[in-house]
Amino acid sequence: MKNTVWTGLFLLFGTLFAQSLYADHIYNLFVSPKMFELNLDTQPISESIRLKNNSGNPLSLRATVQNWTIDEENKLKTVPSDTESLDQWIVVTPENITVKPGKEAVVQFSVTPHPSAEPGEHRAIIYITERYPTAIGEGIELTFSQGIGIYGYSGTILRAAILKEMTFERGSGTLSVDIENIGNVHSRFHGDYSIWKKERFAGVKALKGYLNKPDKKNKPQGFIASGSVNTTPVLAGNRRTIKTILPVTGLPAGYIVVVSGSINNQKVEKIFR
Known about the structure:
- The chain is mainly beta.
- The chain has 2 domains: 2-154, Immunoglobulins (Immunoglobulin-like), CATH 2.60.40; 161-272, Immunoglobulin-like (Sandwich).
- It has 3 helices and 19 strands.
- It has helices at 10-13, 23-26, 204-212; strands at 2-7, 29-32, 35-40, 45-53, 59-70, 76-79, 90-93, 96-99, 104-111, 120-130, 134-137, 140-154, 161-169, 174-181, 190-196, 223-228, 239-245, 256-263, 266-272.
- Strands 1, 3, 5, 6, 8, 10, 11 and 12 form an 8-stranded mixed beta sheet that branches. A 4-stranded antiparallel beta sheet has the order 2-4-9-7, with no helix packed on it.
- A hairpin with a 2-residue loop joins β18 and β19.
């Protein structure tokens, strides 16, 4: 049985999709930085990705660059290059590299922007992929691939995403954020949620104070739980509903959900009673 585990997509979506079965194997390789945002002009750009092998065995890796988008199910999808995709302007060296146990290595990439690139966002993703599968027992072979997202910005940038609606479905615990992006770069809703007992909501200020000093003994009265909202980006020209599943299973009826965040530096606060 062969499996490919894709890690690093939390750079784009705020979530790491990987089963615990593979956790030790995945985190044997440390990759930094996790994402690049580059200002594209007429001058070439050079950047480096640092790799550290925390395992006791050498890791043989391949670096490749591709174009990508986000499909209607909010999943990353690699797509062929086009005239405005960033991948066609990137050269990665070396393409093949072996990192010795406990050692570090560097993958470099250069960007030569097209002088007539359209204003707005251009995207690429560099995958660091294990060249040979690793046997982890019981006939299972595992290959991992980590993606480093690259956003390049050219010309005049227009950030113009609109929060159309925010809803909460109590039966499933699903928080839905409907965003329409009419700008020319991606946008995200950055926010946190908190869950409170009925009639015991102490206010947003109390929550912020607790999050800054998360000492359980000093929890605001009525506070149950908190977390971050899914930050999947909405690409330019798209309208998407970004969903976050809240841990409400088993809670008594009448709990309150408070969402506080921002989009395009505009503050958003909403209470679901």
